[in-house]
Specification:
single chain, alpha/beta, TIM Barrel, eight-stranded parallel β-barrel, 11 helices
């Protein structure tokens, strides 16, 4: 992957809010402190997909975190439709058939497909409850290897697995990490977390931060501080 020329691109602000108007208000308040925004289920289902081309037209990058997983044809056609909106990243779950279909559907317009290995809200007990025989680190490594074989552009994983994932996927694929919490922030529902500085030192390309920024009295200042910490 090409080196990032703007350090702000390493921070992806999660617009996990209820309405498009609220999301647009946050983007305005954050201003030039951030260049990259994530739209997940909550906002997408509330009309947020229409926000993608508007943000892209404003020179901002968009991460569509929709975690697609379905039969191959459905995933392929879904990815093809979403690519036309102009996002930079799109997530799918790291199942081999799903990943191969997403790669077929991404086209040539620059959309990068990220594979979600194991959710950062999962720990060993959660993985066992879900029926996985492998440990979380082993499951992450297996799915990262399958993603590389499928031609996926990057991996979504916990920062604590970043080093092992990098060893599997090599230097040319992205690692994107949610569950990042600045020092002193509440963990919320995250269980495998790091601070922004720790994540950068672990070789993470992009960090996803939501509530510590969007819930702050001054989200612009918090975004600035996170970028500075990673730099």
């Amino acid at each position: 992957m090409p080196a990032l020329t703007d350090p702000r691109d390493r921070l992806i602000v999660a617009l996990d809010v209820a309405t498009v108007a609220e999301a647009e208000g946050l983007v305005e308040r954050i201003g030039d402190a951030a260049t990259f925004y994530k739209i997940g289920y909550r906002l997408a289902y509330a009309g947020g997909l229409a926000l993608v081309p508007r943000l892209a037209a404003a020179g901002l990058k968009v991460f569509l975190d929709l975690k697609l997983h379905d039969i191959g044809n459905t995933v392929e056609e879904g990815v093809r439709a979403l690519a036309d909106l102009g996002p930079t990243f799109l997530t799918v779950h790291a199942y081999p058939q799903t990943m191969r279909a997403a790669v077929r559907g991404r086209g040539t317009g620059g959309l990068q497909i990220l594979a979600v290995t194991v959710l950062t809200s999962y720990d060993a007990a959660d993985a066992r409850d879900a029926g996985y025989a492998l440990s979380v680190p082993d499951l992450v490594a297996q799915r990262a290897r399958q993603a590389a074989e499928a031609g996926i552009d990057g991996i979504v994983c916990s920062a604590v697995e970043a080093e092992s994932v990098r060893g599997v996927i090599g230097p040319d694929r992205l690692i994107v990490t949610p569950g990042i919490r600045p020092a002193g922030s509440a963990l919320g529902d995250q269980k495998r977390v790091m601070t922004p500085g720790e994540a950068r030192r672990a070789g993470i390309d992009h960090v996803v931060v939501g509530r510590p920024i969007t819930g702050a009295a001054d989200p612009r200042a918090v975004a600035h501080a996170i970028v500075a910490e990673m730099a």
